[in-house]
């Protein structure tokens, strides 16, 4: 599937294929495990993430808030980042990472951001990365992502 995706992006004059992650079940925790020969089982949670600079230089990624303590060790290091030619400024680091890595800056109308979170307990069985692309508009935030979350998989624990 990922090879087909990369091939399609490149055939359509895409510029760059960066991340290729496709995992299921217990391979979803921790994040950033490369694609393997694991066979996806029935009713398993599937994690898919690809960062590409596609046609006409459009950057897209397919994954913030305060992360509960038991999930923090496996966190995605950013709660949001800009997107343009690739993942770029501004980088909004997780709250506890900000003192060491963060910096001051501005978020202005016209910017596009990817807001993301990864939740996977250390040595846990599963993990989930959620992400939305948003446009910062004069009137507020406009969600650009149009693929819905599976309501029956969302939990508020």
Q: How would you portray this structure in words?
A:
The chain is mainly beta. 9% of the residues lie in helices and 36% in strands. The protein has 2 helices and 8 strands, in the order H-E-E-E-E-E-H-E-E-E. The termini are far apart.
Furnish the topology, listing elements before pairings:
Blueprint: H1 2-11, E1 16-24, E2 46-53, E3 59-61, E4 78-83, E5 87-93, H2 98-101, E6 112-120, E7 127-137, E8 140-143
Antiparallel strand pairs: 1-2, 2-3, 4-5, 4-6, 6-7, 7-8
How do you describe this structure in short?
This protein is mainly beta. It has 2 helices and 8 strands.
What characteristics describe this protein?
single chain; 157 residues; mainly beta; five-stranded antiparallel β-sheet; 2 helices; 8 strands; globular
The poorly predicted ranges are none
Overall spatial form: globular
Structural class: mainly beta
Backbone CA Rg: 16 Å
Please state the average pLDDT score. Answer: 76
**β-strand number:** 8
Residue fraction in strands: 35-45%
What is the helix fraction of residues, given as a range?
Answer: under 10%
- Biggest β-sheet: strands ordered side by side in the sheet: 5-4-6-7-8
Span between termini: 33 Å
Oligomer: single chain
Main sheet attributes: strand count, strand direction, barrel closure = 5 strands, antiparallel
* Helix and strand pattern: HEEEEEHEEE
Determine the number of helices (DSSP H or I, runs of at least 4 residues).
Answer: 2
């Amino acid at each position: 599937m990922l090879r087909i995706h990369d091939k399609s992006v490149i055939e359509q004059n895409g510029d760059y294929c960066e991340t290729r992650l496709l995992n299921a079940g217990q391979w979803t925790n921790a994040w950033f495990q490369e694609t393997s020969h694991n066979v996806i089982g029935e009713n398993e949670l599937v994690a898919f993430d690809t960062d590409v600079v596609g046609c006409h230089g459009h950057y897209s990624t397919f994954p913030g808030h305060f992360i509960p303590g038991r999930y923090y060790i496996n966190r995605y290091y950013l709660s949001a980042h800009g997107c343009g030619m690739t993942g770029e400024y501004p980088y909004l680091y997780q709250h506890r990472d900000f003192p060491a890595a963060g910096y001051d800056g501005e978020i202005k109308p016209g910017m596009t951001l990817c807001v993301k979170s990864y939740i996977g307990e250390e040595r846990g069985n599963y993990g989930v990365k959620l992400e939305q692309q948003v446009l910062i508009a004069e009137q507020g935030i406009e969600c650009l992502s149009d693929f819905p979350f599976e309501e029956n998989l969302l939990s508020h624990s």
